[in-house]
Specification:
disordered N terminus, 222 residues, 41% helix, 2 domains, five-stranded mixed β-sheet
Length: 222
């Protein structure tokens, strides 16, 4: 939907992912760990800032993680009118618990016995090492995109959905009460859940999305 150029009563949410980080590049479970923007990530942030340069922004929301705050800084360089900054960890990345800091490939090689048992699948000619790697990939897939499955001490998407759902209810009321436009510097999985709820999408669709580092999702609140 096109933005109201006449400055009427319509308000907008501009939602974007932080720029690419070192852990993103190395395919490491990041979660609530801090990982700095790479040169590419800074480029992503600048691209976001260009896309939002001519928008009116009254309020900015971010998580306490540096990648969220640092990406937002580039956006706000063009918006001296934005005087209200809010840190709200309801839009923080999904926690991966004990997996945080682990490389995806290492996880696949060392896992496969937590969620799946040897014997649940046929070997189909695979030797034991190949079979265990197969189970590791299945476990990675289940934790990475399974909606109700979480790593130990981590969050499932269902857990994230609860806090993001609360955030959405709050932000709708906040915008209506204050008549403001808001930018949200969020994270890949919190955006995934935000989109699912706001756009009324199914789990099967939401789990297949890739959330780009340089895209702005625009939502009308009226």
């Amino acid at each position: 939907m096109k933005e109201d150029k006449k400055g009427g009563s319509e308000n907008y949410i501009y939602l974007f992912r932080h720029g690419k980080t070192d852990f993103n590049t190395k395919k490491i479970f990041t979660g609530w760990m801090d990982s700095k923007l790479t040169k590419e990530g800074i480029k992503n942030a600048k691209e976001i800032s260009k896309k939002l340069k001519n928008k009116k922004i009254d309020v900015a929301i971010y998580s306490h993680l540096s990648r969220s705050k640092d990406t937002l800084k580039y956006v706000l360089n063009f918006h001296p009118e934005c005087k209200t900054l809010i840190c709200d960890d309801r839009i923080i990345e999904r926690s991966y618990g004990e997996l945080e800091g682990m490389n995806h490939k290492k996880f696949i090689k060392t896992s496969g016995k937590i969620l799946f048992k040897l014997g649940e699948y046929n070997f189909n000619g695979m030797n034991k090492k190949e079979y265990e790697n197969f189970l590791g990939e299945k476990e990675y897939e289940a934790i990475h995109r399974g909606w109700e499955i979480s790593a130990k001490d981590g969050e499932s998407f269902l857990d994230v959905e609860k806090r993001v759902g609360e955030f959405i209810c709050w932000i709708k009321e906040y915008i209506k009460k204050n008549n403001v436009n808001i930018v949200i510097s969020a994270h890949g999985n919190s955006i995934r859940v935000f989109r699912k709820i706001w756009e009324s999408k199914k789990i099967e669709e939401a789990t297949k999305w890739f959330i780009p580092y340089d895209k702005v999702y625009t939502y009308l609140v009226n």
